[in-house]
Amino acid sequence: MPNAKEELFDTSRGLPVPWTLTGLSALVGILFPICIALVFFYAPLEKEMGYVQKIFYFHVPAAWIMLISAPVMAYSSIAFLWRRTDNWDRLNDAAVELAILFGVLVLISGPLWGRKAWGVYWVWDVRLTSSLVLVLTLVACKIVRAYAGPSAKQISAGLSVLAVCNAVFVYVSVDIWRGTHPEKVVNKSGGLAPGMRLAFWMCVLTFILGYVVMLWTRVRAGKLRTALDRLHMKAIEAGLED
Fold first, then answer.
1. Which long-range contacts (CB under 8 A, 24 or more apart) does 223-228 make?
2. Which letter, b or e, does each residue of 81-102 get, where b requires 16 or more Cβ atoms within 10 Å of its Cβ?
3. Cβ contacts of residue 235 below 8 Å, gap of 6+?
4. Rounded distance, CA 120 to CA 181, Å?
């Protein structure tokens, strides 16, 4: 019969913090100030947009991370619908939450940039509209998970698969319809100016590592919440709730 610690944490050692997670967290904490310094003091100042153009260094990596969450959601949601295990459900829930977080960053930073570039905060461009729909679909995943009853996890996983299809559409929309949104950075003729490359790719690296740290931490938090729920049930069964 497993002991209490194994029942709560599915391991004989509890839930220790891996040294790799600690190291990655420290690295991200070091890289973010470096990114800010590179963006505002090293990267060249754009002649027409001025400092507003600096949003580019955070807006684009945030958009990439939002889309990078898509394959994580796809794999974890399909795996959960097939195997119905808590581990896949926790990964899917974490990926959805982080996609919402970075999606909101995109929807906030984009209009601030667009106001200077287009003269308005929002235009119903295909990529902008599909990005908004993507974030709203992900929010629906969280609402369903909270209020849909016994089948909430399965419905949420199905919605996240739909969100993945939308994420693919967001990615290819600029290639199919040339709207007001700029073309993909990697597709631009000549690429980035030499002074922009270091700052941009450093921001991309930092955002990716930050995403890994947050995803890992969120999955661990889900395990702890499961352990707390089990402990609560044991307390009820033992009559300690009263």
1. 223/9, 223/10, 223/15, 223/90, 224/15, 226/86, 226/90, 227/8, 227/9, 227/15
2. beeeeebbbbbbbbbbbbbbbb
3. 241
4. 13
- Sort residue 179 into left (φ over 0), alpha (ψ -120 to 50) or beta: beta
Strands (E), the chain: none
Kindly tell me the sign of the dihedral angle through the C-alpha atoms of 25, 29, 32, 34.
negative
Q: What is the pLDDT of residue 138?
A: 94
The helix (H) or strand (E) run that includes residue 146 is: helix 126-147
How many angstroms separate the CA atoms of 86 and 59, rounded? 33
**Can you read off the two tokens belonging to residue 167?**
């994420």
Q: What are phi and psi of 50, to 5 degrees?
A: 65, -140
CA distance 119 to 103: 22
CB 129 within 8 A of CB 101: no
Least confident of 172-176, 185-189, 211-215, 221-225: 185-189
